[in-house]
Each structure stands twice: as structure tokens, then as C-alpha cells.
Automatic annotation (TrEMBL), chain A:
InterPro entries recorded: CoA-bd (IPR003781), NAD(P)-bd_dom_sf (IPR036291)
Source organism superkingdom: Bacteria
UniProt xrefs under Pfam families: CoA_binding_2
Protein's recorded name: CoA-binding protein
UniProtKB/TrEMBL annotation, chain B:
CC annotations in GO: cytoplasm
Superkingdom of origin: Bacteria
EC class: transferase
The protein, known as: O-acetylhomoserine aminocarboxypropyltransferase
Gene Ontology MF term list: cysteine synthase activity; O-acetylhomoserine aminocarboxypropyltransferase activity; pyridoxal phosphate binding
Cofactor(s) the record lists: pyridoxal 5'-phosphate
NCBIfam families, alphabetized: OAH_OAS_sulfhy (TIGR01326), PRK05994.1 (NF004650)
Keywords: Pyridoxal phosphate, Transferase
EC number annotated for this UniProt entry: 2.5.1.49
Gene3D superfamilies named in the record: Aspartate Aminotransferase, domain 1, Type I PLP-dependent aspartate aminotransferase-like (Major domain)
Matches recorded under InterPro entries: Cys/Met-Metab_PyrdxlP-dep_enz (IPR000277), Cys_met_metab_PP (IPR054542), OAc-hSer/O-AcSer_sulfhydrylase (IPR006235), PyrdxlP-dep_Trfase (IPR015424), PyrdxlP-dep_Trfase_major (IPR015421), PyrdxlP-dep_Trfase_small (IPR015422)
Lineage: Bacteria, Pseudomonadati, Pseudomonadota, Alphaproteobacteria, Hyphomicrobiales
Length: 174, 427
């Protein structure tokens, strides 16, 4: 995968196929991007499992927080890394030690570790780096266009409402 | 559709505008409403906390205006845009996001007269101080930079027409001093010049002019190039410091490469209030669909009229960069090879009186203070916009007694030339 420029279909397929997301670097602070992304993904029916050693055993947005990926008792579809690029290396290795393996490792906007990505891809895991799942969901669904952001998407097909009010769109745009 | 970047003409029609999700309406609906119902209480909290994308209140955002924003962001190659009530409002919001009282910015001295007024007088009330530099001498921008300088401001094609600015040379100075370069791209429009490709960081527009293009709606745009990293830069606290009203959120960090546009919206537009009406947004959007066609015709007509005037026995000089004899011809070839725009000035051998007679005698050209209309426009600055200045001041401002400014429309060029000929004969 060329990690400088992901095809829209690659990102869309990932966001449509994953359900359980372990979010490493979760925060209790509602002003932090990781809290905002956790809330946004929960509202879109993803099963987000917050991971933060400092908050382990507590609750965050109604979800139980785990200290490490290995502590999570259920299979994980996607590991979302909300740490810096250096920390993404060992975290990727923790993810690669899981059984079953996750299908996707996603590193947040500004986080990129090409060596870790290569190790994950060698095991057949899809990798996304330096992207935000909230921005990508907003871009592909059309929601982000409400904020005047250049979605770089053109379509003569109408966006599809998510079925939960008028201000949420789904990824099922033709 | 593949991920291939669509062409400019396709973006001018499609960017930002999908069929309406609720009704399937294909033209962009005019969402003429002040407010939007929340899906539930939690959704309302998410919107107010900037945690979800969506609409609250049309002073802060409106779906019709949002289509215009994304359209112009796409045409300029930016990350995001913000539509506001006028080009002047765009400038207030840009500097509001960058400046603290006592700060300075460096601006080219060849600007729209309204901008010179705004920077010289009204900005002083905010404690924002302008230092002037000469766009013909890029080094003069560097000389004007001080430790309080927060930005550099230029026009791509500068008023009163006929000045092509060497954007790359000034962008290099801005980069060296880690300052955002703001470019007013009104006169060129993104069809002729795309300033982000030459190193600009922020673009402003008076959409009233060529974007809308039909002389019917006032509006302005701010476009974020996504190229300037405000996060962690203490000189720009609006973007780099926690915002108390948003629970300590750091806008430049949370919104990444479109943080500047968001800051202009959630601070400037929210608190200063110059929102664009959705109706005006619709009119400007409709205009933009034909921007590539109009802008080419404007430029082609202007070159034909300028060429004709340059050979006229009553005309002493013509200042149009599309003419090979012009001092800006080489810069025009580099920055706007498709054409040098619609607006230019020329001088009458008969001076002030000839200028007044010419304006009175023209039948097709409208005598008014605007540019960028489908209709051809004329103004004699010395007897109108610059009337209060001394003769020396008029000449310095490019508005000497003999100067006439034209904004060439998209009519048949032969009719424009005929009208100018008959008016010159009588002048």
C-alpha cells in the first residue's frame, strides 16, 4: 500500500467492515481529539474499547477501559493508535501478538511508522497512517462538507442518511 | 468515479454540491433558515462542543453556504473555506485569527482602495498595525518585517488593474520568516491564478466580483491552504492555545490542516457575526458554474480592447499585462498564461475633462464602482472614488486626472470597441 495517498475505496472498505475498535491512548478529557473520536465512533455504532493504562478498570463514555491490548477479552477488528510515531512501533507489535490478529492497524493523524506498518502488512493486516477515522468517515459520508471542508469527493448520487436523525450520514453512498 | 483529481471546469460545477440527502433536489437548495433541529440532546452537546460535524445556527454555518465553501476550497486547491458577508469581512476574520493588539502585518501598497482604508484606519481600532511594502520590490517586504509581524498580505493581480505580483518571491520571504502569506485572489480568480501553487498559505476573495460574476450579490471567502503549521506556535494563540469556551480544545491541533478555516468560523464568524445569506451563497454558486467560460472571455475581450486602445490617437498609455509591451508581461506569462484578467487602466491625452466626457459618452459601459460583472464597467477615479485627494495623491494612487479604469465584460468585443471609439471621438 502506498501510505502517502490512500484510495477512497480502501478507507471506505475498512470503515464499513470493522466493528470492534481498540482505541489506544484514550482520554477522559472531552477537549482531546482521542475523546472526540471515541464519542464520534460510538455514535456511529462502532464498538469502541478504550485502552489507557492510567485509566484501566474505569469507564470512559460508558465503556470499560483496558490497560493493554492483551487485556481485552474479545477479538478486535481494528487497533487505532492515538500515540506518537515512536510509540506506534511497540504498540503495533502488541497488536501483532494478539490472537486472533486484528484486521486493521490505524495510526492517527500525524502518526506514522513505516517500519511498523511493514511488519503488520507482512502478516496480511491492512494499515492506515496519518489519518483520522472521524475525518475520513466525515469525508466519505459527506458530513464534513457541512463544515466547508474540501472532501475531494464528487458525486451526482445523493448522500445517504444514517437513519439516526438528519445530521448523520452513512458510508453507503453509491 | 476514480480518485483522479477532476479538472477545474468539473470542480466549478460539482465540488461541494451533491443532490440533497433528504429530497434529492439537484440544484443546491437555498436553506433559508436561521436554525437546525438537533437529533437529540446529546447531538446538540456534540455540535456545540465542536465534536460532531453539523449545523446549529446560520450565523456559524449553513448548508447552502457550505456548498460554496467547499466549491471554492476545491477550485483553489485548499483544505477548507469559510463564506462570509463580503470580501472585507473575510479580511477582518483572517486577521482576527492571526493578530493580537499591537501586532503588525506587512501589506503590498498596490491594493483595492477599500482594503487600504480598512488596513489604515479601522484595523487601528483593533490595535492591528499595517506596514506597507512595494510588490514590485519583493525585498521591501523583508525590510518591513519586525518581531511583531504576524502575516504578509498581497493581491495576486493588484488593483487598480494591470499589476502582476511575483507571488513566489514574496512567498519565499514569508517562509524564511515563518509568516503566513495571505493572497487576495479576487482579480484573478482561481481560473487564472492559483496562489497556493505559488506558496500562499491563506486566500481571500471578494466573491462579489468574478466568482459570483453577475454583479448581483455581495460575498466573501476565506480559503485555508493547510500549509501553515499553527499548532504549537505561540505567536498565534487563537490556534495554538486551549480555547476556554470550547473546554480547552486547541483548534490548530484538533482540526489539523483545516484548523485555520475552523478558527475563522468558530471564533471570528461566531463572535463578529458577518454571516453570508444563503440566498447570496446560491447566487454566487450559480455564477461559479460558468467561471471558467466567463473568465476566459473576460480576459480575451480585455486583451482585444487594450490592444485597440493602445493604438488610439487620443490614448496616451494603456496598462494591461497581456500586452507584450507592458512591464508586467513576463510575470503575466508566468502566473496567468491563460489571460491577464478583465480590469485595467488607461490614460487620456485630454486629461481630466476628457475623462469626464468619455464616461458620459459611453452607452454600453456602465459608470459605477465595481468590477467583475458580465457587463462592461467604467470609472473615472479622479472625479469619483479618489475625488477627495490632491492631484499629487491621485497620481501616486494610480488615479491621476487622465486615468480611466475599465472592467471588461463578456459582451461582443466589437461592440465594446465601437462604444469606446464613439465616446473617445466625442471626448
Amino acid at each position: 500500500m502506498n501510505h502517502d495517498n490512500y484510495p477512497n475505496d480502501y478507507i471506505r472498505e475498512i470503515l464499513k467492515s470493522v466493528k470492534t475498535i481498540a482505541l489506544v491512548g484514550a482520554s477522559q478529557n472531552p477537549a482531546r481529539p482521542s475523546w472526540i473520536v471515541t464519542k464520534y465512533l460510538l455514535e456511529r455504532d462502532y464498538d469502541v474499547i478504550p485502552v489507557n493504562p492510567g485509566l484501566a478498570g474505569g469507564e470512559l463514555l460508558g465503556r470499560k477501559v483496558y490497560g493493554t491490548l492483551a487485556d481485552i477479552p474479545v477479538p478486535i477488528d481494528m487497533v487505532e493508535i492515538f500515540r506518537n510515531s515512536a510509540a506506534a512501533g511497540p504498540l503495533t507489535d502488541e497488536a501483532l501478538a494478539l490472537d486472533p490478529l486484528p484486521k486493521v492497524i490505524w495510526m492517527q493523524l500525524s502518526v506514522r511508522n513505516d517500519e511498523a506498518a511493514a511488519r503488520a502488512e507482512a502478516k496480511g493486516i491492512k494499515v492506515v497512517m496519518d489519518r483520522c477515522p472521524k475525518i475520513e468517515f466525515g469525508r466519505l459520508s459527506g458530513e464534513i462538507s457541512w463544515q466547508g471542508v474540501n472532501s475531494r469527493m464528487l458525486s451526482a448520487k445523493r448522500p445517504v442518511l444514517s437513519g439516526k436523525g438528519f445530521q448523520k450520514l452513512s458510508l453507503n453512498r453509491p | 468515479m476514480t480518485d483522479r483529481l477532476p479538472g477545474f471546469d468539473t470542480l466549478a460545477i460539482h465540488a461541494g454540491a451533491a443532490p440533497d440527502a433528504a429530497t434529492g433536489a439537484r440544484a443546491t437548495p437555498i436553506y433559508q433558515t436561521t436554525s437546525f433541529v438537533f437529533d437529540d440532546v446529546d447531538h446538540a452537546a456534540s455540535l456545540f462542543g465542536l465534536q460532531a460535524f453539523g449545523n446549529i445556527y446560520s450565523r456559524i454555518g449553513n448548508p447552502t453556504c457550505a456548498v460554496l465553501e467547499e466549491r471554492v476550497a476545491a477550485l483553489e486547491g485548499g483544505t477548507a473555506a469559510l463564506a462570509v458577508a463580503s470580501g472585507h469581512a473575510a479580511q477582518v476574520l483572517v486577521f482576527n485569527a492571526l493578530m493580537q493588539p499591537g501586532d503588525e502585518f506587512v501589506a503590498g501598497n498596490k491594493l483595492y482602495g477599500g482594503s487600504i482604508n480598512q488596513f489604515t484606519h479601522t484595523f487601528k481600532n483593533f490595535g492591528w498595525n499595517v506596514a506597507w511594502a512595494d510588490p514590485d520590490e519583493p525585498a521591501s517586504f523583508e525590510a518591513a518585517i519586525t518581531p511583531r509581524t504576524k502575516a504578509i498580505f498581497i493581491e495576486s493581480i493588484a488593483n487598480p488593474g494591470g499589476v502582476i505580483v511575483d507571488i513566489k518571491a514574496i512567498a519565499a520571504i514569508a517562509k524564511k520568516h515563518r509568516l503566513p502569506l495571505i493572497v487576495d485572489n479576487t482579480m484573478a480568480s482561481p481560473y487564472l491564478i492559483r496562489p497556493f501553487e505559488h506558496g500562499a498559505d491563506i486566500i481571500v476573495h471578494s466573491a462579489t466580483k468574478f466568482l459570483g460574476g453577475h454583479g448581483n450579490s455581495i460575498g466573501g471567502l476565506i480559503v485555508d491552504g493547510g500549509s501553515f503549521n499553527f499548532a504549537g506556535d505561540d505567536r498565534y494563540p487563537a490556534l495554538s492555545k486551549p480555547r476556554p469556551e470550547y473546554g480547552g480544545m486547541v483548534l490548530g491541533e484538533t482540526f489539523g490542516n483545516f484548523g485555520f478555516a475552523i478558527a475563522c468560523r468558530v471564533l471570528g464568524l461566531r463572535d463578529l457575526g458577518p454571516a453570508l445569506s444563503p440566498f447570496n451563497a446560491f447566487m454566487i454558486l450559480t455564477g461559479i458554474e460558468t467561471l471558467p467560460l466567463r473568465m476566459q472571455r473576460h480576459s480575451d475581450n480585455a486583451l482585444a480592447v487594450a490592444t485597440h486602445l493602445a493604438a488610439h490617437h487620443k490614448v496616451s498609455w494603456v496598462s494591461y499585462p497581456g500586452l507584450p509591451s507592458d512591464r508586467y508581461y513576463q510575470l503575466a506569462k508566468e502566473y496567468c498564461p491563460k489571460g491577464a484578467g478583465a480590469v485595467f487602466t488607461f490614460g487620456l491625452k485630454g486629461g481630466y475633462e476628457a475623462g469626464i466626457k468619455l464616461v458620459s459618452n459611453l452607452k454600453l459601459f456602465s459608470h459605477l464602482a465595481n468590477i467583475g460583472d458580465t457587463r462592461s464597467l467604467v470609472i473615472h477615479p479622479a472625479s469619483t472614488t479618489h475625488r477627495q485627494l490632491t492631484d499629487a495623491q491621485k497620481t501616486q494612487a494610480g488615479a491621476g486626472p487622465e486615468v480611466v479604469r475599465l472592467s471588461i465584460g463578456i459582451e461582443d468585443k466589437a461592440d465594446l470597441i465601437d462604444d469606446l471609439d464613439q465616446a473617445l471621438d466625442a471626448a
